[in-house]
Amino acid sequence: MNLFLDAFAWIFSPDRLTGSSVPLPLAIWQHLAFTFGSVLIAALIAIPLGWLIGHTGRGREIAVALSGAARALPSLGLLLLLVLLIGVVHKTEAAVVSFVLLAIPSILAGAYAGFEAIDRSVIDAGRAVGMTPWQVLWKIEVPLGLPLLMGGLRSATLQVVATVTIAAYAGLGGLGFYFLQGIQLNRFDQVLGASLIVVALALALDGLFALLQRLVVPRGVALPRGVEGRTPYLRPHKVADAPG
């Protein structure tokens, strides 16, 4: 219990603002910049590819294999390898590449799974009323697939925000700086304090994406209970028959 009190005292100490070589607000900003920047780049790559797979039904096996391989890559080892390959001058780019590869599988899975979860009769109905393939994509598949896509973005963001701490091993700052410094100085209150901040960031981002995941559900479509944070399926609300 005393260690937790010491950790909170470390977090709220005035020295965290000015007395450290890396002030806490700057470390948090660096951490979030790596997180959102990497997830954004991963989304620009994975979402169009996932939509293409889900829309055409082709390439799913290849995407699953590549996603599985990307998940198996050790992030720290990949980061250090990329720094050695492209040089310390480009260590920021090396870190971003490693975090992007970590985020792509979840976003890709959310993108194509969102399309695959749609009842095919809904798409057939759209085509029956004269919708073009582009109209089917943007007016049916994309809106109905958004909740699962948002779930993929949510999962990717949580993975990245927890992993960005390894950027400190390449001298890139972030909250991982306090981990390394605390271990070297045997300051376990500092290590625990930095860990608590990472946990707080993860919980805040998880809550934000959980809210967004509910907001993007189209009217007339519901997410079943207990699927938040996982890969849910979509089901339409049951509509009672009109009298007469």
**Beta-strand content bin:** under 5%
Instruction: Report, as a whole number of angstroms, the end-to-end distance.
Output: 68 Å
H/E element string? HHHHHHHHHHEE
Rg, Å, rounded: 22 Å
Mean pLDDT: 86
Description:
It is a single chain. By secondary structure, the protein is an all-alpha fold. It has a single domain (2-10, 25-235), classed as MetI-like (MetI-like fold). The chain is 72% helix and 2% strand. It contains ten helices and two strands. It has helices at residues 2-11, 15-18, 24-56, 60-72, 75-86, 91-116, 120-128, 133-163, 176-185, 188-215, and strands at residues 221-222, 235-236. Strands 1-2 form a two-stranded antiparallel ribbon. Helix 3 crosses helix 6, helix 5 crosses helix 6 and helix 6 (91-116) crosses helix 8 (133-163). The longest helix is centred in the first third of the chain and has 33 residues, at 24-56. The termini are far apart. Mean pLDDT is 86; it is low at 226-244.
